[in-house]
Design brief:
This protein has eight helices and two strands. By secondary structure, the chain is mainly alpha-helical. About 25% of the residues are buried.
């Protein structure tokens, strides 16, 4: 029974009456309601993420990379790359951070806040909703927080190792492999997570990815049955 019910007859439900100290209140598992939603298949979630990354990368590099090349002069004689850490110099790192972190964050946060889905999720019929209350649209805070974890927190280690490679030792750039492995595990967490199959960023943001095609199909079957 959901925890919020109107009192009837002027009497509160038994679990809300006074109880002696040390007696626990009955526990209501509100994740059970979320588990009844049509959860998104893992492969379609991966496909939607890939579509979003490709879109942002293509347009991001097309916009940002020419500017960076002009600033550092890689296409001119005596360019700054020879004296500022080789190819891993600060303008290139800034470009990568913008394209791989800042732009995806803006792309995802705005779309989740406005529509509850990115373009990739829209194409594959997926949506992002709240776990509590189950199925409700995301708040702006949740949308921004989920996008920040997904696109900034997971990536920050990459740029730390790049900065260390520029300042200290080139081979520290291989530390990016460890960060990418950790980020991959954060996504794969959804495979064995029970009962909601949430990735780590979903658990931290209190969100859930649902299959909107399954939701609509279920609605259509119910409407046909009632008719």
């Amino acid at each position: 029974m959901p925890p919020q019910q109107y009192w009837q007859g002027g009497q509160p439900p038994p679990q809300q009456q006074w109880q002696p100290a040390g007696v626990s209140q009955p526990y209501y598992d509100d994740t059970a309601e979320a588990a009844e939603l049509p959860l998104a298949p893992i492969l379609r979630r991966a496909g939607a993420r890939l579509i979003d990354y490709v879109l942002v990368a293509v347009f991001g590099f097309a916009l940002v990379l020419p500017v960076a090349l002009g600033v550092i002069g890689l296409d001119t004689a005596g360019d700054k790359a020879n004296t500022e850490g080789g190819i891993w110099n600060w303008p290139i790192i800034f470009t990568l951070f913008t394209v791989l972190s800042v732009l995806p964050f803006i792309y995802e946060a705005v779309q989740l806040a406005m529509w509850g889905r990115t373009l990739g999720k829209r194409v594959l019929g997926l949506g992002v909703v709240q776990v509590r209350p189950a199925g409700e649209a995301l708040t702006t805070y949740q949308a921004v927080w989920r996008a920040a974890i997904n696109n900034v927190a997971y990536q920050i280690g990459v740029f730390v190792f790049l900065a260390l490679a520029v300042m200290i030792w080139d081979y520290l750039a291989y530390g990016m492999l460890l960060v990418w492995a950790g980020a991959l595990m954060a996504y794969l967490w959804a495979i064995w997570d029970q009962p909601l199959h949430q990735s780590l960023h979903d658990r931290m943001a209190g969100t859930l990815v649902i299959d909107e095609r399954g939701q609509y199909a279920e609605y259509d079957e119910t409407a046909e049955y009632e008719a």
